[in-house]
Write a structure and sequence with these properties.
The complex is a heterodimer of chains A (303) and B (242).
Chain A (H helix, E strand, L loop, with lengths): L5 E3 L2 E3 L3 E3 L8 H4 L28 E4 L2 E4 L8 H12 L7 E5 L4 H12 L4 E7 L16 H12 L6 E4 L7 H10 L4 E4 L3 E3 L2 E2 L4 E2 L6 E4 L4 H12 L6 E4 L5 H10 L3 E4 L2 H4 L3 H15 L14
Parallel strand pairs in A: 3-15, 6-7, 7-8, 8-9, 9-14, 14-15
Antiparallel strand pairs in A: 1-2, 4-5, 5-13, 10-13, 11-12
Chain B lengths: L1 E12 L4 E7 L11 E5 L7 E4 L2 E3 L2 E7 L3 H7 L6 E8 L12 E6 L4 H12 L5 E6 L8 H7 L2 E6 L6 E2 L12 E5 L2 H10 L4 E4 L15 E4 L2 E4 L6 E3 L6
Parallel strand pairs in B: 8-9, 8-12, 9-10, 10-11, 12-13
Antiparallel strand pairs in B: 1-2, 1-7, 2-6, 3-4, 3-7, 5-6, 13-16, 14-15
The chains are: A alpha/beta (303), B alpha/beta (242).
């Protein structure tokens, strides 16, 4: 009998598999397909202070082994999430959920985190300082160590829940951003968000995406994500959630060997709605294949 | 929604770029005309959303136009190919509002989903008429299929090479109780302006997931933000912001 449990910032997960924010909504569409309580947890749709429609369409483009999205943080706003999404979620998800928060100013981040601090269902707050699809916010905070630290300090001051800062790969030195967040009081680091990318419709000679550029994700980015997880995990003491192109139980184990305590699965949820359930079910088989009796023992196990 | 494996039974080419594919398997999740399926293809990441043309027992018929890498790959699939398909996606058309003489207005590859709708309306004792619009006679398909169901069919071509010259809106009859439409957005907008009754519009958008998870295909409506894939693709005239 293998042990898939891991402990993330003081909360034990049945397994390290976490659907990533923006690919799983508030879980409802997936709960209609299978019992999502088999997951470690999930990170819900990036939530902001006010409701947002996001960017004009087209927001989606095909890429080799991946896709580009430029949704632009469409969400119903934190008050709606507290009044409707979280109460409704109680009917189909019975574990602590990860709240994903974004903002356009330090005050926005602090406000939204403070509002979610009182919600008992929220186990962790994942603070997205890395959305490539909005102007004047999101990624602007995650590409500079000082700005990322400022957001971290502001949210640290308003919540006792564990906070994980979700970092952008669109930087020269992700380690310096991670370290700045750790020093500012982050309980964990979550990486990577999507990579800034672009496709052009050759026939029309125009970008496929209305917003011109967007976030590139999917299996194509796995090696880049793994490298960054490895670098950050070796530079900080707080736990790291690894994500970026994860598509299999073997990928989960690879991320954990690189130093991830838990692993998020993003773009693949859109292609295969059962992927997270299947990875959870497949983990014991793959663990036995590699003679792993307890997943938590392999974290950072790559020398 | 149901994820199923469907087997290609056969394909035929209807025009230079339009193909009809028949697939066999469990299609029980398809409950309404106007719904779509999302097809996974080898070597491509995103699934390809294609509207349902017809369902009969365990056979699904789709009609699609080759517009890019995905649909081109589909057109080359031989009989016997097994495809991973998400079925029963989208809301589909609501037949309850049709009245006795509904009008079906299709443009190009917007025509296929109206076929199953016509079939279901006729089964309910309604007498639908169809206007099928194309650019030119070489692009026309589906006319005989609608006639075989017993529909009054008017074909329009922009260049006048077949049927009524002009757009679908040049062929609107004097009397109809309701309308259902699917086609390119400029046509939908023209129908919106010209139609004398209320009706339902089926929309197209580039999609991520096709089942409501990613917000890739959202639009603004009178009643708030809607996902074309999950809350649509069919919207009522009254909720459209044009």
């Amino acid at each position: 009998m293998v042990n898939t449990k891991v402990t993330l910032c003081g909360i034990t997960l049945d397994n390290p598999v976490i659907p990533a924010s923006g690919t799983f909504g508030f879980g409802r569409e997936f709960a209609e397909l299978y019992d999502i309580n088999c997951l470690g947890t999930f990170s819900f749709k990036g939530t902001t202070r006010e409701a947002r429609f996001g960017n004009p369409t087209p927001r989606i483009a095909e890429c080799t082994s991946g896709m580009i999205n430029a949704v632009g943080l469409q969400n119903p706003g934190v008050e709606h999430v507290i009044a409707h999404e979280l109460p409704e979620m109680k009917a189909y998800f019975h574990k602590p959920v990860m709240a994903n928060v974004s903002g356009f100013s330090v005050e926005d981040y602090a406000y939204t985190c403070a509002r979610l601090d009182g919600e008992e269902q929220v186990g962790w707050i994942e603070v997205n300082v890395s959305c490539p699809n909005v102007h004047g916010g999101g990624m602007a905070f995650g590409t500079c160590p000082e700005a990322a630290a400022e957001v971290t300090r502001a949210v640290r001051a308003v919540t006792h829940k564990p906070i994980l800062i979700k970092l952008s790969p669109n930087v020269t030195d992700i380690v310096s951003v991670a370290k700045a967040c750790e020093e500012a009081g982050a309980d964990g680091i979550s990486l990577i968000n999507t990579m800034l990318g672009m496709r052009i419709d050759v026939a029309r000679r125009k970008p496929v995406i209305a917003n011109r550029m967007g976030g590139f994700s999917g299996p194509a980015i796995f090696p880049v994500a793994l490298r960054m997880v490895y670098q950050v995990a070796h530079a900080v003491r707080v736990p790291v959630i690894g994500m970026g192109g994860v598509a299999s139980a073997e990928n989960v184990i690879e991320m954990m060997l690189a130093g991830a305590t838990a692993v998020e699965v993003g773009a693949m949820n859109l292609i295969d709605p059962y992927i997270c359930r299947d990875i959870v079910n497949d983990l014991p088989r793959v663990m036995e294949k590699y003679r792993i009796s307890s997943l938590s023992e392999i974290i950072g196990g790559c020398m | 929604m149901k994820q199923v494996q469907l087997t290609v039974i056969g394909q035929e080419q209807l025009t230079a770029s339009v193909f009809r594919m028949r697939l066999a398997g469990d299609i029980s999740a398809i409950t309404a005309p106007g719904q779509f399926v999302n097809i996974r293809l080898d070597g491509l990441f995103l699934r390809r959303p294609i509207s349902v043309n017809d369902v009969q027992d365990d056979v699904l018929t789709i009609i699609y136009k080759v517009v890019g890498t995905g649909t081109e790959a589909m057109s080359r699939l031989p009989a016997g190919s097994v495809l991973d398909v998400l079925t029963g996606l989208g809301n589909g058309y609501d037949l309850s509002k049709s009245g006795s003489r509904p009008l079906l207005i299709g443009g190009g590859v917007g025509v296929p989903p109206l076929y199953l709708l016509a079939k279901r309306l006729i089964a309910e004792g309604k007498r639908p008429a169809a206007i099928l619009g194309f650019n030119t006679k070489d692009e026309v398909f589906g006319e005989d299929d609608f006639r075989a169901l017993g529909c009054d069919v008017t074909v329009t071509t922009v260049d006048g090479s077949l049927g009524t010259k002009g757009f679908v809106t040049n062929a609107l009859p004097d009397e109809y109780t309701y309308f259902y439409t699917c086609g390119p957005e400029p046509m939908l907008k023209a129908v919106y302006k010209a139609a004398a009754t209320s009706g339902q519009f089926s929309f197209e958008e580039r999609m991520g997931c096709g089942f409501g998870a990613c917000m890739g295909c959202s639009c603004k409506t009178v009643t708030g933000y809607k996902r074309i894939c999950k809350d649509g693709p069919v919207l009522e005239k009254e909720e459209i912001l044009w």
